[in-house]
């Protein structure tokens, strides 16, 4: 018997598949697209930082927008209004989105589920200016009597106190419009996460005698927890940057208040930029760009947190 040499026992490397021209073109295009995204993001960041410097270093007394106050004192109420309106919208939209997603994924017949899924996806394509027109012209007037009822019977709660707005154009109206706008995003993500729940987990719960709701509570919701949180954070990021809908709905005053149904409303950063930019000049433009930089950092932080949550739970939910 011939002795086996070390050279014979060495594993042979698998031959590499030839690179076709189509593969090279596709991989090059994908790499170029990824690099383009990074370049655009870096360019936007550099522009915002460079154009914002006069707002931080200039004389507040000479600035036509600051009018003697510091930049942080000027932007503080707008940051509060942006976060407050977005959180209100998220509180309203999250239960609805989870309920609709559960109905589509586990309760509705297949044809109805497909139709509802199509409607939800179509709702995301409606321009924000349409929501703004509907909210400011129609919805605000319709909901104003409800605000009067809240103030009459629940006015002892600070959120519903104060003098009721006669037009209905309040921070709560803006939050309701924002909730409708972010509803498709959150519903679509939650629906996909719910559908990714392993069938064996669901069947095991049902085999043990659980009802459908108990199966959802024990198998679906724990599995989809990370996906639901990331969907909420992405919806929050969408609400933070909304401009036209809030601008057209909200009766702006720039105050810092938690009252929801009065004419004295906080203002969001995007709405303030949209309303102030046409008349801004000189260092006033730098101030508005600086407020945009604050919004950019805030939105980037929210989306980065959402991506971190998704990656942290990806091995359980598959929601990446």
Automatic annotation (TrEMBL):
This is Phosphate transport system permease protein. One of its GO terms (cellular component) is plasma membrane. Keywords: Cell membrane, Membrane, Phosphate transport, Transmembrane, Transmembrane helix, Transport. The chain crosses the membrane at residues 24-50, 70-103, 115-134, 146-164, 171-195, 215-236, 243-264, 284-306. It comes from Microbacterium halimionae. Its main location: membrane. It is found in: Cell membrane. GO terms for molecular function: phosphate transmembrane transporter activity. InterPro entries: MetI-like (IPR000515), MetI-like_sf (IPR035906), Phosphate_PstC (IPR011864), Phosphate_Transport_Permease (IPR051124).
């Amino acid at each position: 018997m011939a002795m086996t040499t070390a050279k014979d026992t060495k594993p042979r490397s698998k031959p590499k598949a030839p690179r076709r021209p189509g593969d090279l073109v596709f991989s090059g295009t994908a790499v170029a697209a990824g690099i383009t995204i990074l370049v655009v993001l870096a360019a936007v960041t550099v522009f915002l930082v460079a154009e914002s410097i006069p707002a931080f270093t200039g004389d507040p007394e000479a600035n036509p927008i600051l009018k003697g106050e510091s930049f942080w004192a000027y932007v503080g109420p707008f940051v509060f209004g942006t976060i407050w309106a977005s959180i209100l919208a998220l509180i309203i939209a999250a239960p609805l989105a989870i309920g609709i997603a559960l109905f589509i994924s586990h309760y509705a017949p297949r044809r109805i589920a497909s139709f509802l899924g199509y409607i939800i996806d179509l709702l995301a394509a409606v321009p924000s200016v349409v929501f703004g027109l509907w909210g400011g012209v129609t919805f605000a007037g319709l909901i104003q009597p409800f605000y009067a009822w809240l103030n009459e019977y629940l006015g002892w709660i600070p959120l519903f106190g104060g003098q009721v707005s006669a037009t209905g154009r309040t921070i709560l109206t803006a939050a309701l419009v924002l909730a409708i706008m972010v509803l498709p995003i959150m519903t679509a993500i939650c629906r996909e996460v719910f559908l990714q729940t392993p069938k064996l987990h669901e069947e095991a719960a049902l085999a043990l005698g659980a009802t459908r709701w108990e199966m959802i509570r024990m198998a679906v919701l724990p599995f989809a927890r990370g996906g639901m949180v990331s969907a909420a954070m992405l919806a929050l990021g969408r609400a933070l940057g909304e401009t036209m809908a809030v601008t057209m709905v909200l009766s702006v005053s720039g105050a810092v208040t938690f009252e929801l149904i009065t004419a004295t409303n906080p203002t969001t950063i995007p709405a303030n930029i949209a309303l102030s930019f046409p008349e801004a000049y000189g260092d006033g433009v730098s101030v508005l760009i600086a407020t945009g930089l604050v919004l950019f950092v805030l939105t980037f932080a929210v989306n980065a947190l959402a991506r971190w949550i998704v990656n942290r739970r990806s091995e359980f939910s598959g929601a990446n």
